[in-house]
Amino acid sequence: MITPRDRVLGRIADHLAALRPGHPLRVAVDGITASGKTTLARELTAAVVARGRPAAHLSMDGFHNPRVVRHRQGRDSADGYYADAYDFASFARLVLEPLGPGGDRRYRQRIIDLASDTAIDEPPVTAAEDMVLVVDGSFLQRELTWDEVVFVDTPFEVARERGTRRDAELLGGLEQAGRAFDQRYHAASRRYLTEVEPARRATIVLSNEDIANPVLRRIGALRIDPDHYLARPRNSSGD
Question: Model-level pTM?
Fold first, then answer.
């Protein structure tokens, strides 16, 4: 049975599979922390492959800075997360540029193992000329250039509930996880929304508040219900 989510993801996958810029298509899946970016990126990758187009999924988890850099402004610092979490310069040099116009299509899949905080020097892989690379991560429109951007629009209170449950064990319990989201992850996300306006700049905007019933707000030049597509902080006792 085809679900409402299948239909929406299929429409996005059809759009991406039809784009042929003359080099691998570089697609960002952007959004606030715990908005559902990674799950969506994996689903979109599979949907593009199902349409006969080679595709690969890459997570920005593999392009974090070392822990000593990530936490140099403090473990709970929102500014530190915003400025220091990711090595965007290396990602651009090792992934986006090789896959862009005139690139040799040889790209790196990761440079660090996040769990062990260990640098990784793996050989590059070669992308097919018509490959679609789907990348999930935070702050992806701050200083990087993409061919397409999917913004995953999820209310802060919904993302907080998902994220604290997901990360409770990693962060020492629900209370500690909630504090981390309030003080670091979502505080940085609010700054990103204010400074960059990522939903406005994205080529595709998807409301992911209800995972089973996502709503496509904009795709390409077509805007759907434009008064409601922007991600905004919503009032919540948890925030």
Answer: 0.91
